[in-house]
Write a structure and sequence with these properties.
The chain is of the alpha+beta class and about 190 residues long. Among the domains are: about 45 residues, SH3 type barrels (Roll); about 70 residues, Arc Repressor Mutant, subunit A (Orthogonal Bundle), CATH 1.10.10. Helix 2 packs across helix 3. It is elongated and about 100 Å long. The model has no long low-confidence stretch (mean pLDDT about 80).
Length: about 190
């Protein structure tokens, strides 16, 4: 799951995916309705991969929270509407997903955003582990195994005999002849 291209833009209720960058902003695609639109550097834009939630120990990245929510709900959306749910229901679910969340610094609006973003990402197919993620994990495991294995000695290289360079000619080229037919000025 890679959330580096998923953006939260202030003033916009849904999440957006980065399509391309421009000179003074970006082109994004809404994950709910698929509409593309420009955003500018004057907008407040946050990458989901950089957002963290307060816990009693430290801060926890959203990617890990989404992953534990996905595992807890077995890849299904929440059974309640996060925008209409009361605070007790939101905090009960948050306690299941993130048991050590900081009760003083995490507000109901944060939990609402968390679960509504989870549902948006799940419907857009951004939370399911892709084949690339699985391949990357297996490639990483192979790299670890290769690093632990002793490396064979590199074979010695043999070089081909050098060929003689072509010899330079010593004759100077003559100046080109004048081919114009214009008359000389008087």
């Amino acid at each position: 799951m890679d959330l580096s291209n998923i953006l939260a833009i202030s003033g916009k209720p849904d999440l957006n995916e980065l399509v391309s960058r421009t000179k003074n902003g970006a082109i994004v695609k809404n994950l709910v309705n698929g509409q593309k639109f420009p955003v500018f550097s004057s907008n407040s834009i946050s990458q989901l991969s950089e957002i963290r939630m307060f816990t009693t120990d430290d801060e926890k990245p959203l990617e890990e929270i989404f992953e534990s929510t996905y595992n807890l709900l077995e890849g299904k959306p929440t059974d309640f509407d996060p925008k209409k749910a009361d605070s007790k229901e939101l905090f009960d679910m948050l306690a299941k997903v993130l048991p050590n969340y900081d009760t003083d610094r995490v507000h109901a609006s944060d939990a609402k955003k968390l679960f509504s973003w989870y549902n948006i990402l799940l419907n857009a197919g951004k939370l399911t582990p892709t084949e690339e993620d699985k391949e990357a994990e297996s490639a990483e495991a192979e790299n670890i195994e290769k690093a632990a294995a002793p490396k064979p000695a590199a074979p010695k290289r043999t070089t081909a005999p050098k060929q003689a360079a072509p010899k330079a000619t010593t004759q100077a080229k003559s100046a080109p002849k004048r081919t114009t037919t214009a008359k000389k000025a008087i």
